[in-house]
């Protein structure tokens, strides 16, 4: 499979074009610490939806299988976050963009001194009561890239939740950069990052099917998830409409979206943000809606034969979008973070543009907010026309067939 190089703060990491890791992957332990004169603070822009947002993090334990990556764990453990429309009134505390111990470990792995970067807060209020008119809501799963974190899609996720979706973000331990569990335990990817992408795709598929099983149990009234602090926020279990499930992923998460849809018919529609396709789904295709977004001339359909084969075998609704000026990291929060900390990571302009492209940050964010929601509005709610064809509001988005 064709490989490409992503230049990071520490070295050039090789990865498949379908499943390239994020630029903020764990760096070599020998990197010198880089200190800033004053801390650089990253805060997500406010989401655009009409509803306040609540969120809750859950630890899930799949006792039916040992952890496939490490023999030291008797069962597979996952961390997920559920994001949802919340009641107004007295605000609950906002959650940090990344849990604090995970953030410290992660920034340290990049060679950044403690306190050099403050990752700030998301807009989700911890364990706020659920409230949204209109009955149970569509559910969307989010799977991040390899050597990344579920935090990296927070901008997309918050915007969906603020527009009336329940969104479940999933960390896949030992291919994620960092995962913080209750009690402060932090698990990291192996030195050098993920190597076995075929295994990771299989593990992620199993992870995602297990998450769907747990959501089914939660909807039925079982919230025994191992979460310290008591039951789920009021109203949340009844908010899950598990007849309308979508999934979106970035990079390896995009490939995992296709693989999980092939393995599990409960997922009604899927979107891949500069991801690929691998495994049985390539030749089998799908009979349900699928959106492919990639970077024209820099990977994706142009240079990935497996993705082209997968595309040709899609039998349901399909769209292939490219975004002018985008690069691999234009489809998540990295497009906001990297320009702020590039000087601390020793990135020159060319290297930075290789990661986040030349598309203006506000336009990358506008795409992230508009197109995932338009896709799920169309296929989980039966409304919206943005994906019918090119829009003058988004001249950088090209429709390719």
Question: Spans with pLDDT under 50 lasting ≥5 residues?
Answer: 1-33
Average pLDDT confidence is 88
Q: What is the percent of helical residues?
A: 25-40%
Strand order of the largest sheet: 6-8-4-5-10-9-13-14-15-16-17
Percentage of residues in strands: 15-25%
C-alpha Rg (nearest Å): 19 Å
Structural class by helix and strand composition: alpha/beta
Number of strands: 17
Report the biggest beta sheet as strand number plus sense, adding barrel if it closes.
11 strands, mixed
Count of helical regions:
10
- Describe the global form: globular
Helices and strands, in order, run as EEEEEEHEEEHEEEHHEHEHEHEHHHE
In whole angstroms, the N-to-C terminal distance is 23 Å
